[in-house]
Amino acid sequence: MIVARRKPFSEIMESLEGYDRVLILGCGTCVAVCLAGGEKEVGILSAQLSIAAELRGKALDIGEATVERQCDREFIEELRNRLNDYPVILSLACGVGIQFVSEMYPQKVVLPGVDTCFIGSNDDVGFWTERCRMCNQCYLAFTGGICPVTMCPKGLLNGPCSGMANGRCEVDPERTCAWVLIYERMKETGRVEQLRRVMAPSDYSRTTTPAVLSHKAYRRRYSAHE
Amino acid sequence: MSKLKEKLESGEFVVTVGLYPPRGADTGEFLAILSKLAGKVDAINLPDSRGASIRLSALSASILAKEKGLEPVMTVSCRDRNRIAISADLLGAHALGIDTVLCVSGDYVSLGDVPQAKPVYDLDSVQLINMIRQMEAGQDIGGNELKGSPKFFVGCVANPIADPIEPHLLKLQKKLTAGVDFIQTLDLYSVEGTAEFLNFLEDKGVKALAGLRLVTMADIEQNEKGRVVGNEIPSEVISEIKSASTDVEALARAQEFLVAMIKDIRAENRWSGIHLTMNGHEELIPQILEQAGLGK
After folding, report:
1. Which member of A12, A116, B179, B286 has the lowest number of beta carbons within 10 Å of its beta carbon?
2. Which of B109, B127, B157 is the best substitution to test chain A (most A C-beta atoms within 10 A)?
3. How many domains does chain A divide into?
4. Count of beta carbons in the 10 Å neighbourhood of residue A162
5. What is the pLDDT of residues B268-296, one digit of tens each?
6. Closest-CA residue to B209 (of B60, B26, B41, B32)
């Protein structure tokens, strides 16, 4: 899932300077799970903004709405009538949702209410960890299911750097070195010999942005995009 | 041709020393140290913004060292440049007569003075060594033909007491397969615990230089704060140096320890030389080498 963190309140206040009507728009999927931009967080931010506006003697008309997904056209389309009352939309979706809303309603000012952090796992209540850098060339078959691109800060593909000390990472000694984890996992599964394989430099031409992907069954329909 | 290569191949026990290029445009002090080191050591390592702190570039520092009559070992780090920039610098280095390089991944940016910088790591050290060998064979890393190919004497870094050692040796083997010529190790404070590493290197045909350090109070302070890049300084070394009543005495004890380490390394008969880090006390090198029986 995509993990995001709500922006600091002061930054949100600053971005709303000069506007008197805003719709806070939540997203019911990833950002709801990571407690950054779901229906509940929309309510909390709305209350905070109301109080702050009142304390400053400013009039601020705040609307609240949450859709299932801001990254899907059909869910944003259903908002069209509701949006008429608001020149400004403060989106609590990830960067994808924010851009999608902005694209669909180009006459509106669409502002971000969260910082999109990473894609990761929900390890525990209120705790998420990054697991994938979306490098478009998965190495997990060769690395015991542990991603060196993500779990090693340097993204080293051929083994640990010399900064590894007592099995710990040079960058964060609280963490076990990703390549120690990979070695142990490969050993456990009888695959250490496979670690002798020299991994070639990554092909970054595969990650030129903005990426586009069409399912092979729909290639003809979307050929104009590729 | 690399003079370091000539010396190592002749079986001479070599002495290299690392010297940080200046942090700024004033090269006066740096040049003065280079002048003093000329003729005293076999080669000088010029780090590539080591510790992720901005310094005069390794290539420029290597040229300055060469102009002072020293044999430069130019560090090439993967941290700050992609494969295109590194290749261009390598061609430039070759054109300017720099033919000995040390290939490293590079200390991570968050350990340095500019943690906001973008880490690059387009290549890792194994891929970098392979790229250099490919350039020597007449092709850039994109497979395009080079008009004239460079030639380098290529080194890498290893840690003989890495814990766990197995994943470290798996990577080192990849560097050896890529054709690395020499190894400079992280700083060692004892010859204990290096046997597995040295046994691994036996018959590999690579020359290994033991990293040794003149331990300063600043090192000890960093060590005690847990901010060590490399191996930790053992507590007995720390207490020996710290118990000195004056700075002069602390330095003398560090010097004594270093001399003893050089003797131990030589006595093992398995090392091709030593790589020194002198922490600003480079003037002591002739005296230390003399005391260790390595007077030049």
Report:
1. B179
2. B127
3. 2
4. 23
5. 999 999 999 999 999 999 999 999 999 76
6. B41
Q: Which amino acid is at B193?
A: G
Taking CA atoms, what residue in B is nearest to A185? B167
CATH code, B3-214+272-281: 3.20.20.220
Region A93-105: mean pLDDT is: 96
Yes or no, beta carbons of A155 and B232 under 8 Å apart: no
Binary contact (A158, B110; C-beta < 8 A): no
ipTM for the predicted complex comes to 0.95
Grouping H, G, I as helix, E, B as strand and the rest as coil, residue B61 is helix
Domain boundary pick from A118, A146, A161: A118
The confidence score (pLDDT) of residue A209 equals: 94
Alpha carbon distances (Å) from A108 to A11, A23, A79: 20, 11, 13
Is there a cis peptide before residue B22, judged by omega within 30 degrees of 0? Answer: no
Question: What per-residue confidence (pLDDT) applies to A39?
Answer: 98
CA distance B270 to B199: 9
Q: What are the residue ranges spanned by the domains of chain B? A: 3-214+272-281
Burial of A64 (0-12, 13-18, 19+ CB in 10 A): middle
Domain that holds residue A30: 2-118
Tens-place pLDDT, residues A141-183 = 999 999 999 999 999 999 999 999 999 999 999 999 999 999 9
The answer to whether the peptide bond before residue B164 is cis (omega within 30 degrees of 0) is yes
Interface test with A, best of B118, B124, B173, B223 (most A CBs within 10 A): B124
Contact assignment for B232 to A170 by CB distance below 8 Å: no
* pLDDT score of B11 more than 90: yes
Cβ contacts from A onto B, under 8 A: 102
